[in-house]
Write a structure and sequence with these properties.
This protein has a single domain (about 1-145), classed as Transcriptional Co-activator pc4, Chain A (Roll), CATH 2.30.31. The protein is of the alpha+beta class. Helix content is about 25%, strand content about 45%. One of its GO terms (cellular component) is cell septum. Belongs to the SsgA family. Pfam families: SsgA (PF04686).
Length: about 140
């Protein structure tokens, strides 16, 4: 795992090796990157490399990773649950879109270290203090028009 962060960074990321789970049960390694940006403090992003070397980014609530480490969490596009393989603790994610579904596993310890960094940067309950709600409301209105 590689962490790229300093205490004053507004954005940081953690690179790790994950696994795609094939329908036949085979595990295929791939590079994964978890990203956090204080400009969107409720969310984290997961960047994945696909088999055809495209990068796909999924953005979802960071709380989903916390909840999914303890019990199955999430509904719809992103589901997270605890998993184990060969004695290693993992987080299993099911990612769904119109293009299909991907089942991936990430090393729990790497995800936990990343989450500790996100909560050191923006503690739980302080996220709303960093959001410019007027700007968000304008974006919402523009999107609805």
């Amino acid at each position: 795992m590689s962490q790229h962060r300093s205490p004053v960074d507004d954005r940081f990321e953690s690179r790790m090796s994950g696994y795609y789970l094939q329908p036949d049960g085979a595990r295929v390694p791939f590079p994964a990157t978890l990203c956090f940006d204080k400009a969107d403090p409720f969310a984290v992003s997961l960047r994945l490399r696909t088999a055809d070397v495209r990068t796909v980014t999924w953005t979802f609530a960071r709380q989903l990773l916390i909840d999914g480490a303890r019990r199955p969490a999430g509904v719809g596009a992103v589901e997270v649950r605890p998993a184990f393989h060969g004695g290693s603790r993992l987080l299993a994610l099911t990612l769904r879109s119109a293009a299909g579904q991907a089942d991936v596993q990430l090393p729990y310890e790497h995800v936990a270290a990343f989450l500790r960094d996100t909560y050191a940067a923006v503690p739980s309950g302080a996220e709303g203090d960093l959001v410019d709600w007027n700007t968000e409301l304008e974006r919402f209105r523009d999107h609805e028009s």
